Amino acid sequence: xxxxxxxxxxxxxxxxxxxxxxxxxxxxxxxxxxxxxxxxxxxxxxxxxxxxxxxxxxxxxxxxxxxxxxxxxxxxxxxxxxxxxxxxxxxxxxxxxxxxxxxxxxxxxxxxxxxxxxxxxxxxxxxxxxxxxxxxxxxxxxxxxxxxxxxxxxxxxxxxxxxxxxxxxxxxxxxxxxxxxxxxxxxxxxxxxxxxxxxxxxxxxxxxxxxxxxxxxxxxxxxxxxxxxxxxxxxxxxxxxxxxxxx
Length: 247
Fold this sequence. Notes:
The chain is α/β, with parallel strands linked by helices. It has helices spanning 2-15, 21-29, 39-55, 68-79, 137-140, 151-161, 179-195, 209-222, 224-230, 232-242; strands spanning 57-60, 95-99, 103-110, 116-123, 125-127, 133-136. It is built from 10 helices and 6 strands, in the order αααβαβββββαααααα.
């Protein structure tokens, strides 16, 4: 019964969408990494992005105007990681906030002596546990160009990571995945990445396991051959996790 109601509600949202297939196709053509999707996968992505826009609010900060182009672009890239997972993977939060460019964010850290240090830093995006995803449009606008950098995918993968608590590089895995194997591979390769530069992989991924997972997810969807060259085992487990083969 609940499944029937859910299906009926989703179909109603799709039928009443303000955007046509042509609108989605034009938006998708501006996102180069989507050219690997066939017509069936693109149609699924368009439907998922439509449901995403119904479920999440996208608002501008510092006077930034949210145009249809912004909404379509963010929705398509945000939904790419969950294309074969479903919108329920983004449950428990409701908003996306877009700044015109990088913005200042307050930081607070506690050192080994228990002393709290407060400051601020410029960011291009962040994801809050049970809170919004925040993005810089100047950075998000150029995501999806197959250069290995995608702030939208990066921050939304953090949301997947947070589904079972704070981001730590260990999201809820698929039922047919081995959690011990995931931990072994990610731990081993994260330690290697801290010591060695890898072509096409942003050094920001060496910060901590959560950033390692997010950075390598960007590469998985943008330049998958770079990930295979650097860490083939991570590519294989990401194929199982995301249920996609981007190469």
